[in-house]
Amino acid sequence: MAIKKINNLELISKDKIEKWILPHLSKGKRGFSTKFDLVKIIQTIIKRLKTGCQWREISVKDYFGEEKISWQNVYYFFNKWSKDGSFRNIWVHLLNRNKRLLDMSCVQLDGSQTRSRMGGELTGYQSRKSAKTSNIIFLCDNRGQMLSMGNLRSGNHHDLYGISVKTWGLSKKFGLSCICRTNLLP
């Protein structure tokens, strides 16, 4: 029996990326096709998001070998897909395809207040943390699978500040996935 060597850099297999992610990414409108392998770019983006390293610290040689590519090229695709909603489309599609696996008997609404040492547009001073912070809320199913995420808010308020507006936004985003949300959120 032959043992298949597993690539340690491969967080998600090439087949899964081609089947579940690539069809939902935006393409050039004028027929432009990139010379880079989009599967490798997706794997590099996932590695960066998983490790939290800086963009310029991404080891593109590990993924692309001797191909002429830099971290700026990878960031270009990440930024483009973030802004045009491609990542949201992927998330909604995956939720919709796998909704039978979700446990919607109870949903969890949780908040995260994160220190913003470098400041930023949506930061505010939080006295109990003695720092500038940002807030965000998450909606999860009963097993902890994330269903939706709110918009980033300034951290100078507690988690429940403006909760009705936040839950409306969560409900609207979650509603894109066509999952029954009766009596879950207003």
Could you describe the 3D structure shown?
The protein has 186 residues and is of the alpha+beta class. The protein has six helices and five strands. It has helices spanning 14-21, 38-51, 60-64, 71-83, 86-97, 163-175; strands spanning 108-115, 124-126, 131-140, 146-149, 153-154. Strands 1, 2, 3, 4 and 5 form a five-stranded antiparallel beta sheet that branches. The longest helix is centred in the first third of the chain and has 14 residues, at 38-51. The termini are far apart.
Briefly characterize the structure.
The protein is of the alpha+beta class and 186 residues long. It has 6 helices and 5 strands, in the order αααααβββββα.
Cα-to-Cα separation, first versus last residue = 56 Å
Oligomer: single chain
Structural class: alpha+beta
How many distinct beta strands? 5
Helix fraction bin: 25-40%
The helix/strand series, from N terminus to C terminus, equals HHHHHEEEEEH
- Radius of gyration based on Cα positions: 19 Å
The tally of helices reads 6
**How much strand content do the residues show?**
5-15%
Average pLDDT over all residues:
78
The largest sheet, given as strand count, sense and whether it forms a barrel, is: 5 strands, antiparallel
- Residue stretches low in confidence (pLDDT < 50, at least 5 long) are 1-6
Morphology call: globular
